[in-house]
UniProtKB/TrEMBL annotation, chain A:
Residues 2-146 form the Aspartate/ornithine carbamoyltransferase carbamoyl-P binding domain. PANTHER family: ASPARTATE CARBAMOYLTRANSFERASE (PTHR45753:SF6), ORNITHINE CARBAMOYLTRANSFERASE, MITOCHONDRIAL (PTHR45753). One of its GO terms (cellular component) is cytosol. Pfam families: OTCace, OTCace_N. One of its GO terms (biological process) is 'de novo' UMP biosynthetic process. Heterododecamer (2C3:3R2) of six catalytic PyrB chains organized as two trimers (C3), and six regulatory PyrI chains organized as three dimers (R2). NCBIfam families: asp_carb_tr (TIGR00670), PRK00856.1 (NF002032). It comes from Kribbella sindirgiensis. Gene3D superfamilies: Aspartate/ornithine carbamoyltransferase. Belongs to the aspartate/ornithine carbamoyltransferase superfamily. ATCase family. This is Aspartate carbamoyltransferase. The lineage of its organism: Bacteria, Bacillati, Actinomycetota, Actinomycetes, Propionibacteriales.
TrEMBL record, chain B:
This is Bifunctional protein PyrR. It is an enzyme of class 2 (transferase). The lineage of its organism: Bacteria, Bacillati, Actinomycetota, Actinomycetes, Propionibacteriales. One of its GO terms (molecular function) is uracil phosphoribosyltransferase activity. Its EC number is 2.4.2.9. It comes from Kribbella sindirgiensis. Keywords: Glycosyltransferase, Transcription, Transcription regulation, Transferase. Coiled coil: none annotated.
Amino acid sequence: MKHLLSAADLNRDEAQLILDTAEEMRSLADRPIKKLPALRGRTVVNLFFEDSTRTRISFEAAAKRLSADVINFSAKGSSLSKGESLKDTALTLQAMGADGVVCRHGSSGAPHLLAKSGWMTGSVVNAGDGTHEHPTQALLDAFTMRRHLGSLEGRRITIVGDVLHSRVARSNVLLLSTLGAEVTVVAPPTLVPVDMTRWPCVTSYDFDAVLPKSDAVMMLRVQRERMNDAFFPSAREYTRRYGLDRNRMAQLPDEAIVLHPGPMNRGMEISAEVADSTRSVIVEQVTNGVAIRMAVLYLLLSGSNETEEHTA
Amino acid sequence: MSPAQSAEHPETAQPPKRSSREVLDASDISRALTRIAHEILERNRGADPVVLLGIPSRGVPLAQRVSARIQAVEGQSVPTGSLDVTMYRDDIGLKPPRGLEHTDIPADGIDGKVVVLVDDVLFSGRTIRAALDALGDIGRPRAVQLAVLVDRGHRELPIRADYVGKNLPTSLVERVTVHLTEFDGEDAVLIADRAADKAADKAADKAPTGVKA
């Protein structure tokens, strides 16, 4: 593995390796000294063209706990707001000697371009690109589910909401099916992407019918900022048909858990009661996010570059 | 990965001609571990302060076996765990990334305890140096001691073992392989000529293995 651009790049063994490595990384949180020397002397650049709180902080904490040097680079207040191209930014990063670049961009495919263009030699981690993918989010979701449900083989996982604009949904469907889970996507017809039939999952428009057959429910954020059309008549109607409230949660099997990638619209796709219930693992997802990002950075950056290319 | 498995590596389609000989058999290993258990108790005047930490992969079952013997002698269990040193190795940036092994520190921690590190083969001493660094991030033991099944010499660092199953003078071209039932289906320590085994070398180097050559 040289880059992590898409959840589809991971085969089952690689995905399991990341999850197993994250399991070891997570035990670090219980130690008095939360620091490992694995990436000493490496430089990780957080290149964020789009706003983000938890993902950027999570990557920063992960890189620092592995003793890497971290440079934060956000579009606001940088030359990017003066119109610098992605290529020139990449050349700058290369000249500074970045070993790893964590990239979030509003355009789908930007991290791919950064990785494959030859502008820079470092490893690229996709931290969310447009409406395309967000592989580390999918990994931390799978990791959280695995900690609660055990192996994901044959587990029924339901992803609900704004699939059209969600990079989290796409990455999750791809990764979870690689791990052997049966994924059902529930969304209003207007929020289902056109190529959905090619995704390795089942599509449904009826949330209530799917609920009793779910081991885990992942609620997606309704991405108002990406919506320039009327995708549903009103927020209230969306909530009534696709929101997770106490009554719907009661329909779930006893062991089922509720996930949300954050940030939540409380009262919209998820009620405050559900978000704060014991079934909700939303806060745990954030903790696990650091462990997963440590695992990814460790596996991409710890070895030598030369041999890495032979084994990639 | 055992050498037998690595022989299946594509690069070694021709199984290398092995000229390995057994230097310790199952009962030799058993006797050595029993003696080490007694020496640990003698040196530390009982089992009270002792915490056993095996270094993956083959140090972990060895630590458990020593632990079982101490329990049988003293009627008192000693905290036993494992300590992965992968991220503390000095060659971490020189080799392809490796997966981590499990680290399991006993619940009471290691502060003020006597930590006995357990490994299969002591060779350059670099693994033990990494283990000492790893321990420093976990706590402050009163003392650290080292138990190994085989000491094959050729130290590259000022490190020595406190408890040795067998001192095995070797030349640098030889390979020492420890087989344990938990991984390889049998207990044995083998010594092989590297020239005969050269093909398997590359594959074995990549694997987290009991082959220390």
